[in-house]
Amino acid sequence: MHENLRRLTKVLEKFNAINYAQAVMSWDGLTGAPESGAGARGKAIGALSALAHNLLINDEVRNDLEILFKDKENLPDFE
What we know:
Elements: H1 3-30, H2 38-56, H3 59-70
Helix pairs in contact: 1-2, 1-3
């Protein structure tokens, strides 16, 4: 596998895991979690959101995407 694609795939796996955790925390807040925990949940969701953002918005990801775009004819097809 193209090294840049492998690295980007790992970043996206982490991004998806963080988004899943955010969704579970949001669902928990909507389905009966104590209201007294809303502030802590909100802070945790905010921290996870910042982590997810920083995983995607950085020079390494930009560089990988630029290289992959230039070499797009040689990348495997995805279904």
